Amino acid sequence: MASVYFTPGPAQLYPTVAGHLQNALDQQVFSQSHRSQAFKDLYKRADAGLRALFQLPADYSIYFTGSATEIWERSLQSLTAQNTYHLVNGSFSKKYLDHAKWLDRNAQVLQVPFGQGFSLEDVQVPDGTELLAITQNETSSGVCMPVEDIHALRQRYPEPLISVDIVSGAPYAALDFSQIDMAFFSVQKGFGLPAGLGVWLVNERSRQKAASLEGKQYTGGHHSLASLQDQYQQFQTPSTPNVLDIYLLAHVVEDMLAKGVDVIRQETEAKAQQLYAFLEESSLFAPFVQEKRHQSPTVVVADVLDRPAAEIISILKKQGFVVGSGYGAFKDKQIRIANFPAILGRQVDDLVQALKRL
Ligand SMILES: *Cc1c(COP(=O)(O)O)cnc(C)c1O
């Protein structure tokens, strides 16, 4: 029997992926030119689906890149000359900061310990900040930032562009995109697709900022915001894109819309509640994130008490449950359980039963 992947990326594939993949093969989609009308129609279809899923304001553009990692770099190159401010509470938010330093930006940071979230009163964004970088769901530690807190930062700081990494929070996180300026994700987490595609959602204000920097500095080459936008106007891409993933994304997003994003959110919360309730009562596990409002519904991280995490992971694996190890220094002490939309309620039931038997 096939295993269920509760890993936080790559993750369990969305249940409809296999059927869509077979259809694409039957239609020879992956041999079609990326300059053809068929590709433009596919891009347009993905664009329409994502707009509906995220309730995007009309001024947003949607670009495709190689990964979310690429968007860390491209967003900093295209949207900043000097001053950035980063909320850092784990490995992924830290990498966004690292990219700013590599690019010689004056990168300011509010850093809190692994496993903690941010109190809004501690966030002090200096005047002149061009980009405020937020990681909505820190995949390494299982800490989320409630979307209300992100919206509150917009009210407090109207000036800087607000960039939100939603890689492991989307499509669950109900962000109001009129309260931010750009967001991005890669598809192998919450969308349950094969890795290798980044999706960058960008508003008009960001495009204006990019235009003001064009010609004054390096703004990101073939994937500069300007060149992506130029191609996007014809539903084209600067280079040959990952058509396989774009095809699967367009179709899976339509499946998610047919199901209803509200239903997906309710199911995510119900499954998360079940997992956290188990961790609370268990004598072998404990939730790593203490503060309830910062406990991620989409990536649940558990401390393993008195036994090596590797032993737990190996026993579960033999039973067909693949859970993630702890991140970095927490590898031996924690497990991470992804609760993405691809994971069904009964699969969480089965996992909890297996955890109880340990
Ligand atoms: C996985 C992840 C990334 C990086 O995604 P890639 O597809 O590997 O570039 C960035 N941010 C977060 C929060 C992630 O979980």
Automatic annotation (TrEMBL):
Belongs to the class-V pyridoxal-phosphate-dependent aminotransferase family. SerC subfamily. Its EC number is 2.6.1.52. The keyword Transferase applies. This is phosphoserine transaminase. One of its GO terms (molecular function) is alanine-glyoxylate transaminase activity. Pathway: Amino-acid biosynthesis; L-serine biosynthesis; L-serine from 3-phospho-D-glycerate: step 2/3. It catalyses: 4-(phosphooxy)-L-threonine + 2-oxoglutarate = (R)-3-hydroxy-2-oxo-4-phosphooxybutanoate + L-glutamate; O-phospho-L-serine + 2-oxoglutarate = 3-phosphooxypyruvate + L-glutamate. Its cofactor is pyridoxal 5'-phosphate. It comes from Rufibacter latericius. It is an enzyme of class 2 (transferase). The keyword Cytoplasm applies. Residues 6-326 form the Aminotransferase class V domain. GO terms for biological process: glycine biosynthetic process, by transamination of glyoxylate; L-serine biosynthetic process; pyridoxine biosynthetic process. Keywords: Amino-acid biosynthesis, Aminotransferase, Cytoplasm, Pyridoxal phosphate, Pyridoxine biosynthesis, Serine biosynthesis, Transferase.
